[in-house]
Amino acid sequence: MISSLTPVGEPEPDEDRVHGLSESIARLRRAMRRAARVADPDNTLTVAQLELLASLAEHPGARPSELARLLRLAPSTVTTLINAIAPRGLISRNTEDSDRRAVAMDLTDAGHGALDSWQLTNTAILATAMAALPASQQRALIRAVPALDALALAIDALAEPTAHPGAGTRPEAGSHLGVAARPSSAREPGS
Length: 191
Hints:
Strand order of the largest sheet: 1-2
Strand content: 5-15%
Order of helices and strands: HHHHEEHHEE
Number of strands: 4
Low-confidence stretches: 167-191
Largest sheet: 2 strands, antiparallel
Structural class: mainly alpha
Distance between the termini: 22 Å
Shape: globular
Helix content: 40-55%
């Protein structure tokens, strides 16, 4: 149930509204990915590769093990991502003089360019789509930005092992992080 994740003293969110928000965010993510592929067909990087580049931009000099921890991916997955993008010249691997086995990763100018291009594409998609909306919906979306930023931080905090009891364990079947799954019969038409 949601109550297991609700801070003490805060009202419990309505499960149907939380489910609706979850569905809307999932649809938005899918729509953004589809639109980005159309807007920039020359960008052949996967979302996982772009997320690795974004994480490296935020944490220059990170080691692969640090990137795995930050991205909550298996070290072997990060190694696979690095091995896929390194030949493209998007990242550099630097060994430390004191320990030749330790490798620090950095974005190259081309890596920064790829990341900037991805972010500009996403911004252009959002600007174009928002321009098609009524002014009242545009204002509502702009007003929602601080709440969405706070939501992203709260979700990031859930990924920390000390964030809540049971972190790092799989939720029970039919639930996600303690939120009961909504039966398919309760879903709205078209979702």
